[in-house]
Structure formats: structure tokens, C-alpha cells
């Protein structure tokens, strides 16, 4: 079997129900989700933290689900959606769990620390990029699975706390933005 088809040689690519230019906003979005998934794979390879590794593997499958749901020429199709509310709820629970396991912060932190955390910060920014591209695509093309937007928004939060957890696991401190003010008040415990 040959991996190349030569069908994209003229600047168009196939999705379910038709072909689009490779620069189409929907194709850009699919490419960014694929790029994000690749960085999640890199983050998994950098981690020595089995609990996080398993969560990232789950997320990689869910990113494929996002891509699947967005791979129709008609985004507002009646196909069964692969991504559901359950995945977003799971992310929210994981964000809360990891927040409880990381040191309190009051200021913005710089992306970095351990190599694993740095890679997770790249995942965070890629998730935000995918979210921005999704809103652009939806403005141009209409409705898609509404869960995807919620999922991508929570996913960037997840990567933020996962990066902090990776730093804590590797005994590496987060780096606070030195010219910033105290902005994170939700860490203050009520007495």
C-alpha cells in the first residue's frame, strides 16, 4: 500500500463529503488540532509521571474525536458526535484535582521549568490557538459540535495545571512573572 495519493498536489484536501483548499479555515483548524496532539505525544514522552501520562493518552484520543467531529464538509451535520459533555466534565475534575496538588500561586507564571512542564505549556498555547481557530471557522461556516469549544477551553486550563504538576513532580519551581501583581485570589483559603 502506498501512503501517498497525489490527490493533494493541487492544493486541495479531502474531508468527509468533499474537498477543500488546504488553506481553508476548517483545514487550518484540523491541522492545529493535529499539531496539538503531536505536542501532547511529546509531553507524554518527556514525563516520568505515570498518572499524567495516562491522562495525556486519554486526551490524545479525545483530540482525534475533535478532529473526527470537525472533518465533515457540513459542520452542522446530523452525525453522532464523538466528543461529549463527559470529556469536558472529566477535564474540569482533573483541573480541580491538580490544583489541589500544586503549590499555591498568586502571580502569573512564565512557561518553563522542567522540560516536561515546558512541553505542556506548549500544549496549552496550542489548545488556545485551536480554540481561536475554531471560533473563526464557526463564524465562517456555522455550527459544529458545541462541546468542542468548551472542551478546548478546559483543555488549556488542564495543560496549565498539568505543567505545574510536572514541575512539582520534578522538584522544579514555577517561575513567577516578576513585574506582575498578585492576581490569583482564588488560592486564598477562606478562614
Automatic annotation (TrEMBL):
<dbReference type="GO" id="GO:0008817">
    <property type="term" value="F:corrinoid adenosyltransferase activity"/>
</dbReference>
<keyword id="KW-0808">Transferase</keyword>
<dbReference type="Pfam" id="PF01923">
    <property type="entry name" value="Cob_adeno_trans"/>
</dbReference>
<feature type="domain" description="Cobalamin adenosyltransferase-like">
    <location>
        <begin position="3"/>
        <end position="165"/>
    </location>
</feature>
<dbReference type="InterPro" id="IPR016030">
    <property type="entry name" value="CblAdoTrfase-like"/>
</dbReference>
<comment type="similarity">
    <text>Belongs to the Cob(I)alamin adenosyltransferase family.</text>
</comment>
<comment type="pathway">
    <text>Cofactor biosynthesis; adenosylcobalamin biosynthesis; adenosylcobalamin from cob(II)yrinate a,c-diamide: step 2/7.</text>
</comment>
<keyword id="KW-0169">Cobalamin biosynthesis</keyword>
<keyword id="KW-0547">Nucleotide-binding</keyword>
<keyword id="KW-0067">ATP-binding</keyword>
<protein>
    <recommendedName>
        <fullName>Corrinoid adenosyltransferase</fullName>
        <ecNumber>2.5.1.17</ecNumber>
    </recommendedName>
</protein>
<dbReference type="InterPro" id="IPR036451">
    <property type="entry name" value="CblAdoTrfase-like_sf"/>
</dbReference>
<dbReference type="InterPro" id="IPR029499">
    <property type="entry name" value="PduO-typ"/>
</dbReference>
